[in-house]
Structure formats: structure tokens, C-alpha cells
Amino acid sequence: MVTMIATVVRAWGSQVLVTDNANGQEVLVNTNNSTCNLAAGDQVRIVYDGIMTASLPPQIGAQSICVLRVY
Question: pLDDT tens digits for 3-50?
Fold first, then answer.
């Protein structure tokens, strides 16, 4: 499993467009769950299997997405 820390750009249905905090790349994240609790600007931790498509933007399938708390 691979972990990505990212910033949500937009969320709709079961997809989230994020910017990877490590390299600034936009990535489309496909999930099995609704993303209605995510909002633009949220910092999230995404766990996925390490497979990323070569499409633009690249896509991954998330095992889990967790909003990181900001204190």
C-alpha cells in the first residue's frame, strides 16, 4: 500500500480531484464511497495500491481517504 497526502481541489459523486502535496501533481481519485463530506482545501491522507494510470490527470483507486485534522 502507498500513502499520499493531498489537498482536495474538488469532490463529486465517488471521485475527488486532489493535488499531491509531495509533487504538486493533480490526481483523480476514484472511491467506492460518496465524497460529500470532502470540501476544496481539505487536507487528506489517501491509501491506495500504488497503481496510477498514465492518463491526464492520472487516476488512482483509493482504499481509504481520511481528512487530516488541522489544529
Answer: 999 999 999 999 999 999 999 999 999 999 888 899 999 999 999 999
CA distances from 36 to 14, 32, 33, 45 (A): 8, 12, 9, 16
Listed in sequence order, the residues at least 6 apart from 34 whose beta carbon sits closer than 8 Å to its beta carbon are 13, 14
Q: Are 2 and 13 in contact (CB under 8 A)?
A: no
Fold held by 2-67: OB fold (Dihydrolipoamide Acetyltransferase, E2P) (2.40.50)
Indicate yes or no: pTM above 0.90: yes
- The one-letter amino acid at 34: S
